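Sequence in, structure out. Go.
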Amino acid sequence: MNHPLSAINEITLMENLIDTKFIKYSGKGDAKAWLLQTMNQFKQYGLRRLEQFQAIPFLLEDTAYSWYTQNKQLIINFERFANLFLKQYSSTSSTIQNNIPVETVAPSIIAPNFLPTSHLQQTIVDEIIKKPTYFRGSKDDVHDWLEKLEQRFKMAKWNDEEKLQYISIHLQDDAYRWWTQTSTTIKSWSLFTEAV
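Output:
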């Protein structure tokens, strides 16, 4: 296969970024926390949807990488990856964590600040993450979208900081591009709702 030199350089830069700044997932540990942390790092480093998709094989190792290679043909974008990944690993995360001493879980994986207090609340949090309520931009009704999103966030008992932290998974197309350009200046949930 003949790749232009610029494409090879971009792949090398991507691989170096992942190797130095991201935590790889091996199939052990809290899959949901890892995915959320990775998505926040994508935002932090300004990686766009296509780059996020291209980063997937560099983010996985061991059994998780084997799972990826077996399912690669089903993974057409990052959202599909996240959906399949969570189906595969979030059901096993709690089992794995219960069988591994706490010290062996990677200390650099940051779990979300919220600790759901009920099964219903945990289910709602899972739904928010696995099945986001998407906003794509000017063609969508922003007020309707915000109302639905606020209702889900309220049921999950998320505070404004948590809402803002995970909003990027709910944005696509023009809305996501807008967010990547303005996220550094929007520091609160109220500023986000005004700006969007």
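Check: The two ends are 43 Å apart (CA to CA). DSSP finds ten helices and no strands in the chain.
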